[in-house]
Amino acid sequence: MAKGARKAKAAARAARAADAGAAAPTESASQEHATPSPTHEAPAEATHDGPPPATDPRDGAGKAEAAPAPAAPEAGAHELESLRTQLDAARAELEDVQRAFAESHSAFAEQLVAMSTQHEEDKQAAIDEAVREKQAAMDEAVRAHQSALDAAARDKQAALAEAARAKQAALDEAAQEHRTALARAQEAHADAPTTAERDALVAERDEARAALQKATERVAALEANEVQHATELAALRTQLAALTSPATHPPRAESLAEIADALGYRAPDYSLLESLHAAHHAKYAALHAELLELRAAAARP
């Protein structure tokens, strides 16, 4: 840009010099035309009142010596031709200087436009790169949150399944004990010779059957509870997928700007990168709060 400015200044100085050179030959030519020629003044000097002068025999020699005087108009014509040639050369030089100035101005304008275009392209590329980096960081954070939520859900499901298996084993063991007691009661009842003993065995058998029925009902209730827990876990997974899915919560520039503005990051006070950074932290805090709420809801019976 500095080189183009120097070229423009040099072209302007050359144009002013050419204008001054063209004006000087014009003034000389006008002075040449304004100066009276000796041929025109001669008749005026020869004209006078009174009788004609006496002729002198020596006048012939004087006239012969003064004969070359008419060569002055030819010298003036040559000088005028020379001045015209100089004027044409000066005009041609002025045209060359003007042409060079126009070319320099055009080159400077093209260079300025190219620099402006390159600056805008570099600026847009920097903005796009910053947006891509922030988008990648947000995607990575979402994936990390999704992994953490999936791990927590798997742990919760494993704990529920282990508790259900332990309860099922305890119920099976209690049912087996009741069956063993019932079998013993039936054997004892078969061997009992008296009615009282038989009635006692029947009562014990009924108690064992009632206990077995209660155990069976408890097993059914536990199975239903396990199904309910599985349904709740599936609902939690669906909610987690809906909360963390990019399709339902796409990162929009408007939402990030609103979050940044709500936190007090005004555009005149902070740059775009600072506003996006603040919005990213706000989004992270919101997702963390949602995760804590989901964990608390899953922990409730």
What is the strand and helix layout of this fold?
Elements: H1 2-34, H2 38-46, H3 59-65, H4 72-191, H5 195-244, H6 253-262, H7 272-299
Describe the structure in brief.
With 301 residues, the protein is an all-alpha fold.
- Rounded to the nearest angstrom, the radius of gyration is 59 Å
Mean pLDDT across all residues, rounded? 72
Query: Could you state the order of secondary-structure elements as H and E?
Result: HHHHHHH
Q: Choose one word for the global shape.
A: rod-shaped
What gap, in angstroms, lies between the N and C termini?
75 Å
Q: Enumerate how many helices there are, as a single number.
A: 7
Helix vs. strand class? mainly alpha
- In total, how many beta strands? 0
Indicate the low-confidence ranges by residue numbers.
21-67
Strand portion, in percent? under 5%
- Percent range for helical residues? over 70%
Biggest sheet descriptor: none
Overall description:
The chain is an all-alpha fold. The chain has a domain at 130-299. The protein contains seven helices and no strands. The longest helix has 120 residues, at 72-191. It is rod-shaped, with a radius of gyration of 59 Å. Residues 1-10 have a biased composition (Basic residues). Residues 11-24, 63-75 have a biased composition (Low complexity). Keywords: Coiled coil. Residues 27-38 have a biased composition (Polar residues).
